[in-house]
Design a protein that fits this description.
Blueprint: E1 3-6, E2 13-18, E3 26-31, E4 37-40, E5 43-52, E6 62-67
Length: 82
């Protein structure tokens, strides 16, 4: 099953995986600019800057969104304490 979300701005389409723990990701297509959050099937999903390659070097990476309250920040390396 595929889902399409229309969003204002831009004309490009972006692949998005909605990832919730170990359950299989739901892939959706977003037309326009990628929003910070996506409402899908009664849940709010948050982008945290994560993405992955879908194997097609001609296509942009697939953005990863996680349920609000469960999003993990991107790994920017070790955090130094002051």
């Amino acid at each position: 099953m595929s889902y399409v979300h229309d969003n204002p701005g831009g004309t490009e389409a972006h692949g998005v995986d909605l990832v919730d723990g170990d359950t299989p990701a739901v892939r959706i297509l977003v037309h326009g600019d990628l929003p910070t959050t996506i409402e899908h099937e009664g849940r709010t999903w948050l982008s945290n800057g994560e993405s992955h390659d879908d194997g097609d070097d001609q296509a942009p990476p697939i953005a990863v969104y996680r349920p609000v309250g469960e999003a993990t920040p991107p790994d920017d390396g070790p955090v130094e304490e002051p």
